[in-house]
Design a protein that fits this description.
Layout lengths: L6 H11 L20 E6 L10 E6 L5 E5 L4 E6 L7 E6 L17 E6 L5 E5 L4 E6 L6 E7 L6 E7 L2 E6 L4 E7 L5 E7 L20 E6 L5 E5 L4 E6 L2 E6 L11 E2 L8 E6 L5 E5 L4 E5 L4 E6 L9 E2 L8 E6 L5 E5 L4 E8 L1
Antiparallel strand pairs: 1-23, 1-26, 2-3, 3-4, 4-5, 6-7, 7-8, 8-9, 10-11, 11-12, 12-13, 14-15, 15-16, 16-17, 18-22, 19-20, 20-21, 21-22, 24-25, 25-26
Length: about 350
């Protein structure tokens, strides 16, 4: 039996585990005042509704958005984002066979999604023990196993960097590395994590411990960042070791801004990186979007902390369980709201 099958299960488990602390202050310019950028939150108008549980997001080189629509077991493409109404279509899933054509394939709670420069999709499913690839650029397309993992796997976020795919294996509490062998075939190995629940940094990747690792992002220098959801931190995998990059840890979950371990998070899930190696984090239980500079400075850029879906500037906006997150080449941030079925856009004005 898999450890986690839905985001709701992850957050429920987190609640049972409990977290102390919980400051509510926001440091820096989170509302877009005169001292920094203005972050304006809007809701995409779509010509086709998503389910109430969209999860992972990714953006292709043409600026099209792909969303893992977990509730209906589909990968959907959203294009014409600059129009008043964006166009939604299903590109993968909806069939009755595990691996088949793109529309003939059956998906199992898709969560993480990535896309390469050739348009090949990579999908992590919470109820599957293998990551799949799908080439849907030409109909009918094809979907097949890309990299297998061990039993008990329950995949969440994924990130693609060159020929390497990084996968958060939430069920086994480890980070997987799948190396491309060519011909859309990958070899899977464990990059980091001892496989037991805990919160342990370490000089050895195999002695570090995670608790519900969910999101993954990779910097330009190859450092890997992980949202360690139940531990309320962002971890960094670099130079053969795991460290805590930001967040005070599981005994002090909250929403306080600050630098490094002086900051707090409350069940972070989605994570994405822009061209300048700034991280953007969907801080799910706090209903906020956080930004982390390469120096580890954490600020709240959007979200008041109150559950809702109100558009606005900075902390005047509200979110309802933000989960997936992606950043386009212009620095715009897109957020999937797991509990509302909406895609929110954060436009940054210097």
């Amino acid at each position: 039996m898999k450890t986690f099958t839905t985001l709701a299960a992850i957050l429920l488990t987190a609640t049972v585990l409990g977290c102390g602390g919980g400051g509510g202050a926001s440091g820096g310019n989170s509302g877009g005042g005169s001292s920094g950028p203005i972050y304006t939150v809007s809701t995409l108008t779509l010509d086709q509704a998503l389910s109430t549980t969209p999860s992972g997001l990714t953006i292709d080189i043409h600026g099209n958005l792909y969303v893992a629509d977990t509730g209906v077991n589909l990968i959907k493409k959203i294009q014409n984002l600059s129009n008043s109404t964006a166009n939604v279509s299903s590109v993968l899933g909806g069939g009755g066979t595990d691996y088949n054509t793109c529309s003939g394939s059956k998906l199992y709670s898709p969560y993480g999604v990535a896309i390469d420069s050739a348009g090949t999709l990579y999908v992590a499913e919470q109820n599957k023990t293998a990551v799949r690839y799908a080439d849907c650029s030409v109909s009918p397309g094809v979907s097949a196993v890309y990299g297998a993992a061990s039993a008990q796997a329950s995949f969440s976020g994924i990130a693609l960097s060159g020929s390497f795919l990084y996968v958060a294996d939430t069920g086994n509490r480890v980070i997987r590395l799948i190396t491309n062998n060519g011909g859309y075939s990958g070899t899977s190995s464990t990059l980091a994590g001892v496989g037991t629940n805990g919160y342990v940094d370490g000089a050895s990747l195999t002695t570090a411990a995670f608790s519900s690792p969910t999101g993954v992002a990779v910097s330009s220098s190859g450092d890997v960042f992980v949202t360690d959801t139940n531990n309320c931190v962002v971890r960094k995998i670099s130079a053969g070791q795991v460290t805590t990059f930001a967040g005070a840890g599981p005994t002090s979950c909250g929403t306080t801004d600050g630098t490094g371990t002086a900051a707090q998070f409350n069940r972070p899930t989605g994570i994405a990186m822009d061209a300048s190696d700034n991280l953007f984090v969907a801080d799910t239980a706090s209903n906020k979007i956080r930004r982390i500079t390469p120096q580890g400075v954490v600020t709240t850029i959007a979200g008041s902390g109150v559950s809702g879906s109100a558009d606005g500037t900075g902390t005047s906006a509200t979110f309802n369980t933000p989960t997936g997150i992606a950043v386009d080449s212009n620095g715009n941030v897109y957020v999937a709201e797991y509990a509302s079925g909406k895609i929110r856009k954060i436009t940054v004005t210097p």
